[in-house]
Every structure is written in C-alpha cells, then in structure tokens.
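Review session, final week

We close the course with one last complete record, chosen because it touches almost every idea we covered. It is NTF2 enzyme family protein, a protein from Gemmatirosa kalamazoonensis with 130 residues. Go through it on your own first, then we will talk.
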Amino acid sequence: MQAMHDLDAEDVEWINVVGHHWRGKATVYKGHVAIHKGMFATTSASVDTVMIRSIAPDVAVAVATLHFGASLDPRYPWVAAAKTRASFTMVKREGVWKIVHFQNTVIDPKAENDDVPAYDATGFPPPRDR
C-alpha cells in the first residue's frame, strides 16, 4: 500500500467505489489503511487492462479494469467480488508521474458490453429485458 501511495500527489483527490471523496495524500492513505485493516484485509485485487493517453504535456489519463475478490472474513459478508473501472488523472511533477485524481466505479455486468452506444439520440437504450 505504501508503494501505491508514493504515487499520490500531496493534493490528490480520491473517489472510491462507494463514493467517499478523500482529499489530500494523508487522508487517502488513512482511508485505505482503515479499510484494508478491516473489511478488505482478506480480499484479493488484480488489474485486468490499462489504457493510457496523454491529454496535455505532462498530463495523462489512465483507465484500468480491476478485479476485487470477496472478503473471506465472516464479519464482512457484504464485501462481494467486484469488477470495476478506475480512472487516474496523472501529472508529471519534478520529473515524476503522480496521481492527482482517482475515481472508481463498479461495472454493472448487464451494461458491460454496451460501452459503445448502439441506440438513438435520446441517450437511453431501448427498453428490453435484461
């Protein structure tokens, strides 16, 4: 966890999968320590895919698909396995890439294969049974 947080900028903002909005490197670290000592202590995590694109000099966005295992701790039966998509905004400061913003969303399996809109200009998919 320390290695991951070494990538955080001092002014990082972190929005996790349940909507917590942590501001500042110390707060992000404190939040992760708390959840990883508790409900996520017995879970696994892996990275499936990563796409990175430069959006300006010394600014890039990385989008990663992540897999998290269910908690093995019986005190946390609600911590289910999840597949998420995370977005990292990175800036190069003093020659080092740092995370300045992070946001993570659980991927709804019913919507996962609909990344490319295949419906009209209403912005909503046609009604159908899912």
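Two points worth writing down before the exam:
The mean pLDDT is 89.
Helices lie at 2-5, 25-37.
Good luck, everyone.
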